[in-house]
């Protein structure tokens, strides 16, 4: 029974190779029927995804929205949500090192984001942090 199964699998593989992957002249086909389907779906996905707008001024990390945070390179919706969660806990980002409080931001990403972020803290945020022990 096992030999029959192996023989059937080998013959099926050979049939697929000769009928679908090889041209009549015995050479590998450059263009396969599946390429049209894969390329068409890939082009549709590429056209749906618009490129991220580029930042022209540093982003105020302590006050901007979650959607604005996704404009930063390497920051998607999940990481932007984590930054918002850390801000909601009362943390104020004063420098690039403070970004490491966010799960998923390490030394490399914090250094890459530092020139794109404005760490300025408003007077209201300062007074709140000074009041908390």
SSE pattern, N- to C-terminal: HHEHHHEH
What structural category characterises the helix and strand content? Answer: mainly alpha
Q: At CATH's second level, what is the architecture of the largest domain?
A: Orthogonal Bundle
Query: N- to C-terminal separation?
Result: 76 Å
Count of strand segments: 2
User: Rg from C-alpha positions?
Assistant: 27 Å
What's the shape? elongated
CATH topology of the largest domain: DNA polymerase, domain 1
Largest sheet: 2 strands, parallel
- Tell me the CATH superfamily of the largest domain: Photosystem II 12 kDa extrinsic protein
Give the spatial strand order of the biggest sheet: 1-2
Helix run count? 6
Number of domains: 2
Please characterize this protein's 3D structure.
The protein has about 130 residues and is mainly alpha-helical. The protein folds into 2 domains: about 1-50, no CATH class; about 60-130, DNA polymerase, domain 1, CATH 1.10.150.320. Helices cover about 50% and strands about 5% of the residues. The chain contains 6 helices and 2 strands, in the order ααβαααβα. It has helices spanning about 1-20, 35-50, 65-70, 75-90, 105-115, 125-130, and strands spanning about 60, 115-120. A two-stranded parallel sheet has the order 1-2.
């Amino acid at each position: 029974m096992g030999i029959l199964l192996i023989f059937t699998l080998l013959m099926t593989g050979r049939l697929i190779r000769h009928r679908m992957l090889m041209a009549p002249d015995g050479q590998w086909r450059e263009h396969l029927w599946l390429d049209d389907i894969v390329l068409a779906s890939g082009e549709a996905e590429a056209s749906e995804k618009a490129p991220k707008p580029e930042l022209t001024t540093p982003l105020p990390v302590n006050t901007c929205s979650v959607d604005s945070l996704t404009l930063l390179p390497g920051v998607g919706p999940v990481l932007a949500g984590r930054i918002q969660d850390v801000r909601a806990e009362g943390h104020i980002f004063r420098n690039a090192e403070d970004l490491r409080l966010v799960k998923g931001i390490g030394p490399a990403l914090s250094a890459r984001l530092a020139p794109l972020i404005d760490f300025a803290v408003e007077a209201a945020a300062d007074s709140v942090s000074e009041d908390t022990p």
